[in-house]
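Structure ticket #2291
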Amino acid sequence: MPTTPAPQPDPRTSKTLHNGIEVLELLSRSPHGLSVTEVAEGIGVHRTVAHRLVRTLEEHRLCKRDSFKRITLGPGLVALAESVEVDLREVARPVLADLAEAQGATAHLVVPEGEDEARALMVVEPRHARAHIAFRTGRVDPLGKGSAGLALLSAMPPRPGEREEVSLARRRGYAVSHAEVTNAVTGVSAPVVGPRGAPVASIGISVLELDDPAPFGEAVVDAARLIAGMLHLP
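Resolution: structure written out below.
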């Protein structure tokens, strides 16, 4: 857990709001939760200040505590995320359409769902391919299976016991999986990276046959960067 205080906010802005956002960002990188002391250390404030921040975020259902008093992100963020997902879909739609046509494969945009799952936010099928994969929007799969989930994990801090495929995806920029969420289907996905390296989504393709993943990997990495740029993510 980092103990170095974060850079001070611009004096023209609200320091309290700045600290509250830092708490949320810290929790987003801590899927197993944090104690109040760990929150205080993580954002460089006194424990009393961290306690007040957590209590305020709890009132707005932006974080919650379990029976062991570990703090995690709360369900109130889902409502806030809905409007963001609308913008994400609008931005991503033409990129997915171009990706699907260029690769002759089904393209998909997947977002993190809680701590351990990933949800298909958008699926675009190629119009002119002789054959392609079909699956439904809204499908939820484990975060640790399938190229989309592996790509999301690759943009997160390493987890204890994580798969070698995640480490490999972290090194080359895209993840590859075969028959993990759908029989006989190979997926290639890259993370759409947001502020401070956190994954906003993953973009990928699904195919039945794949000899060399590198060209598909380059294509999904380029598409992910394009979406991030259109969303003005740093």
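Closing remark: Helices lie at 15-28, 36-43, 47-59, 76-103, 146-154, 164-172, 214-230.
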